[in-house]
């Protein structure tokens, strides 16, 4: 087998903590270090496998630039907001004995179309019946699609992660496969903005009929990031003014919206806000209430605030939160966990390892008549609260 050059490209400002986090993996698989993309793509010979470490989770223009400079490059994208996060991913890969972290297995929970790409518009190349266990060999940048081996033997194929359940393995260790960027065409002459905001400075114009590579999109799909004039200098245009010439926009990396959480109960009546009752919470070493309590009637439905993977779901009567659900959300700016506490014992409708979509019913409000809702972010340093954040700025609440 032809040897593979393998380079780990760390962030340009990575310090010794990032180096220590990757040391075991680098030594185990004889990986080369790099901080400069120019240096990485200049290595002679093919194939070149490049593990790209991205703390902000936004691979769009970086991946496109690398492909422009070296079209044959094999990209392995790692979303790691902190050195500790990177170490967990790489150590798990080393323990599996696979530099690309294979070993995740899922079982289908519904009849699934197998597609040629990570998009609902991609051609169907096969189907899987409910209860079929398959090996996952990668994932899409937004975490919505699993890459599996094509049943027809043509390489990779894709299935929707929402209709599967994890039976073994760790999703974060998998490589993130980013396909060739879709191409879009301007319907009319368009202003190109520096950021996805109509008030952002205009950096230039796209002529009517001009084609560009699409590199990213906002969560609502209102704005699309395009190469302008090239992948190293991207800009933003409104999605409604574009026609897709090749590929699909839904598989693009997503840029975060500040308000991405739906309230866990309806209507969302706040009984106790974040930071309240500092005297009572001093006994716990906290400056105040570490979440938001939403008032509701016992037995009312409790809903998932965003798409994600269920980490825990159970009746923990000895725990301060009692019956609870914890959901992990992979966001463009990091990894978050929402916690739903004080639910009705025996009412849970989800289980660990399951993918849930925003608005999915998790269980019912407990006898106390409120839901304790908490938001955590991996690697966050929010003073005495540690990795706990105030959910208020992220909730979609009516003014």
Radius of gyration: 22 Å
CATH topology title of the largest domain: Glucose Permease (Domain IIA)
Oligomer: single chain
What is the number of helices?
5
Helix content: 10-25%
Task: Please tell me the total number of domains.
Answer: 4
CATH class of the largest domain: Mainly Beta
**What class do helices, strands and sheet pairing give?**
mainly beta
Overall pLDDT metric: 85
Overall shape: it is: globular
- State the major sheet: 8 strands, antiparallel
Tell me the fraction of residues in β-strands, as a range: 35-45%
Please name the CATH architecture of the largest domain: Distorted Sandwich
Instruction: Please give the alpha-carbon distance between the first and last residues.
Output: 62 Å
| Number of strand segments | 30
- Under CATH, the homologous superfamily of the largest domain reads Glucose Permease (Domain IIA)
Task: Extract low-pLDDT stretches.
Answer: none
Protein name: Membrane proteins related to metalloendopeptidases
Organism: Thermoflexus hugenholtzii JAD2
Domain SH3b: 102-168
InterPro entries: Cell_wall_metabolism_enzyme, CheY-like_superfamily, Dup_hybrid_motif, M23ase_b-sheet_dom, SH3-like_bac-type
Task: Write a structural description.
By secondary structure, the protein is mostly beta strands. Helices cover 12% and strands 37% of the residues. The protein has helices at residues 16-29, 37-41, 60-69, 83-96, 278-281; strands at residues 5-9, 32-34, 48-54, 74-79, 104-108, 112-115, 124-128, 133-136, 138-139, 145-149, 156-160, 164-168, 183-186, 190-193, 202-206, 211-218, 223-227, 234-238, 242-246, 254-255, 269-272, 292-295, 301-303, 308-314, 323-331, 334-343, 355-356, 361-364, 370-377, 388-389. The strands form 8 sheets. Strands 21, 22, 24, 25, 26, 27, 29 and 30 form an 8-stranded antiparallel β-sheet that branches. Strands 13, 16, 17, 18, 19 and 20 form a 6-stranded mixed β-sheet that branches. Helix 1 (16-29) links the parallel strand 1 and strand 2 (32-34). Pfam families: Peptidase_M23, SH3_3. This is Membrane proteins related to metalloendopeptidases. One of its GO terms (molecular function) is metalloendopeptidase activity. Residues 102-168 form the SH3b domain.
